[in-house]
Design a protein that fits this description.
The protein is of the alpha+beta class. Helix content is 41%, strand content 17%. The protein folds into three domains: 195 residues, Orthogonal Bundle (Farnesyl Diphosphate Synthase), CATH 1.10.600.10; 188 residues, FAD/NAD(P)-binding domain, CATH 3.50.50.60; 102 residues, no CATH class. The chain is built from 20 helices and 19 strands. Strands 8-7-15-16-17-14-18 form a seven-stranded mixed beta sheet, sandwiched between helices. A four-stranded parallel beta sheet has the order 2-1-13-19, covered by helices on one side. Strands 5-9-6 form a three-stranded antiparallel beta sheet. Helix 4 packs antiparallel against helix 7.
């Protein structure tokens, strides 16, 4: 009753209409209605059907001046159709709603016994169906002055009733076979509604990073209008590329190691027409151990059994690689360190792999997530382990083509401050400088980090601890660039983790880099440069450098945080959310 009272107050519903519905039911309960006069027949229809329409009009937000007329016509059409359809069934329950005036017109006695056999009964029922048809047509005229998005429900209902009506109108009605709609009838109604009611859907996308742009690309493919809002002045997020004045080059905001197992990635490039800007590197990873001063390569060209049987890491035996078997069956609460912390190849393989894949220390990282990655890449062989990289930069491969494809102006510098909910749905997006009204047919998609989502919805329980990803870009001379024999190199026992060799510079990625947040940029650059020089065995000089810190690149992917994301995804929320962080089976990184 409390919910009913809340609805009455919220929509200013008339209590008289509720009383009217109850009175209509009492008319059936107190006595069996038989051959009512015209006044009682009309009153009955108004109480059991029209009153429901009057209440619906208030909830739909339609002006009563036009809405009540529309509701009256539909209510009468529905109820008359019901009475004709249920005529024989009502007789068996000792009821007959046919108006007495119609029986008098055809000289039919007011007697329930065998009345269905009277040949003139078909005439009466057809007259009533004609009246229903007139009311349907009247509602069609009235709806032209009503916002059609507000009467979707009633118009779908009308299509169902019209179909029932058409199965009886101008036809001899078989009383013993009640008229019903089959699956084909319902399918035709669906098609009718789809083609005649071209309700323009619109999706409001908050965030123009890769997730937001991907959503916009898919909306474009499905011919759904979208509006994109971005709080910064640039699109792309962690996949953004930009011209850096300090080193005089276009550089990537971050580096990404994408395996061919990621079908969605390649399909995205194919959709936006940028697959030709990709270069596909062999399925092998090069490593350099600074302490042992040794280089080695992990080739993924063969099946995992053959890969490890060759003992690619120096000074190891086949037994050292059996630790990979521990990832076949993994407990939900286990960390990577729990499984392989004592392995002889922990420092040379499991630690750099975990940092690269999850941006989380193996001592904290969920073993289940790393297990899932291994199962879709290394365990499946070469076809799934080819490496995708951009020929120039990620902006040219992902961001610029996506923006061109959607052909939609992005609303930059639009910072969302609040979200207003009404009846459990988002009704307003409140930005710094304006308010966007959200229609019932619209959808809202949040493609923003969990920290930003939590500011809008503090009641959601989301991870609060994050890891930095640090990228150090060094501009080198052409001669020095040629000293690097591989495009991607993993560093072991170093502060650096991965080197990506670009066309005009090198970029070093450091994962789990919170410890560098307070360090001076020059201090970091000098520290990393020493390690780079040891790799090429030459005391080089860089021309210039730039450091990009992503302080909240990913949440720390512990089993507890993964469980938190899993529980969040189960919640019923009035919006859609997207982004790498929504993964609960794969890492919360763009690569996944």
């Amino acid at each position: 009753m409390r919910e009913l009272e809340n609805s009455i107050n919220e929509f200013s519903l008339s209590k008289e209409n509720f009383y009217s519905i109850i009175d209509g039911m009492l008319m059936d309960v107190k006595t069996d209605i038989q051959f009512p006069n015209t006044k009682v027949f009309k009153l009955y229809c108004e109480r059991v059907a029209v009153a429901v329409g009057y209440l619906s009009i208030k909830i739909f937000g339609i002006k009563q001046s036009i809405g009540n007329k529309y509701a009256y016509s539909l209510g009468m059409a529905f109820q008359i159709t019901n009475i004709v359809r249920d005529f024989y069934e009502d007789l068996k329950n000792k009821r007959c709603y046919l108006p007495s005036s119609k029986l008098t017109k055809y000289g039919i006695k007011k007697n329930l016994k065998n009345i269905e056999n009277n040949p003139y009964i078909q005439n009466i029922l057809q007259e009533m169906l004609e009246e229903a048809k007139n009311e349907f047509e009247r509602s069609d005229l009235l709806k032209k002055d009503i916002d059609k998005k507000k009467i979707i429900g009633s118009e779908i209902m009308k299509l169902f009733y019209k179909s029932i009506h058409q199965k009886m109108f101008k036809k001899k009605i078989n009383f013993k076979k009640k008229v019903k709609l089959n699956i084909w009838d319902k399918f035709l109604i669906f098609l009718n509604f789809t083609f005649r009611w071209n309700i323009k859907k619109k999706i409001h996308i908050i965030g123009a990073g890769l997730a937001g742009l991907s959503a916009a690309v898919n909306a474009k493919k499905k011919k759904i209008d979208c509006e994109i809002y971005e709080s910064s002045k640039n699109a792309g997020g962690r996949c953004r590329s930009f011209f850096d004045k300090k080193i005089g080059l276009e550089i990537d905001n971050g580096n990404h190691l994408v395996f061919s197992a990621n079908n969605n990635f390649f399909n995205f490039c194919k959709t936006v027409g940028s697959q030709k800007t990709l270069k596909i590197l062999p399925s092998s990873l090069s490593f350099f151990d600074i302490e042992k001063k040794k280089k080695w390569e992990l080739s993924l060209e063969k099946k995992i059994k053959e890969i490890f049987s060759n003992c690619p890491i120096p000074n190891t035996t086949l037994l050292d690689y059996l630790s990979v078997l521990k990832f076949i069956f993994v407990k939900r609460k286990s960390t990577v360190f729990d499984l392989v912390g004592n392995s002889n190849i922990y420092k040379e393989f499991w630690e750099p792999l975990t940092l690269a894949v999850m941006n989380t220390s193996p001592k904290l990282a969920s073993a289940q997530i790393l297990s899932n990655v291994l199962k879709v890449t290394f365990f499946k062989g070469r076809k799934y382990c080819l490496i995708y990289q951009p020929q120039e930069n990620w902006g040219e491969t992902l961001i610029e083509p996506a923006i061109s494809f959607i052909k939609k102006k992005i609303n930059f510098n639009e910072s969302l401050k609040r979200v207003h909910l009404k009846n459990g749905k988002i009704s307003e997006l409140i930005f710094t400088k304006r308010i966007i009204k959200i229609k019932n047919s619209d959808r809202v998609l949040f493609a923003i980090p969990p920290t930003n989502l939590n500011k809008l919805f503090p009641e959601f329980k989301l991870p609060t601890n994050y890891n930095t990803i640090l990228n150090v870009h060094f501009k080198l001379s052409k001669n020095d660039l040629h000293l690097f024999d591989n495009k991607i190199i993993g560093f072991i026992n170093t502060k650096s983790h991965w080197i990506f060799v670009k066309n005009k510079y090198i970029s070093i990625t450091i994962s789990d880099a919170n410890k560098f947040n307070s360090m001076d940029s020059l201090e970091i650059a000098d520290l990393i440069w020493l390690e780079v020089c040891k790799y090429v065995k030459k005391d080089m000089k860089y021309l210039s450098f730039q450091i990009v810190r992503e302080k909240k690149a990913t949440y720390i992917q512990t089993p507890k945080n993964i469980e938190m994301i899993t529980n969040f995804k189960k919640k019923k929320v009035p919006f859609t959310f997207a982004g790498d962080w929504t993964q609960n089976r794969l890492p919360c990184k763009i690569e996944a």
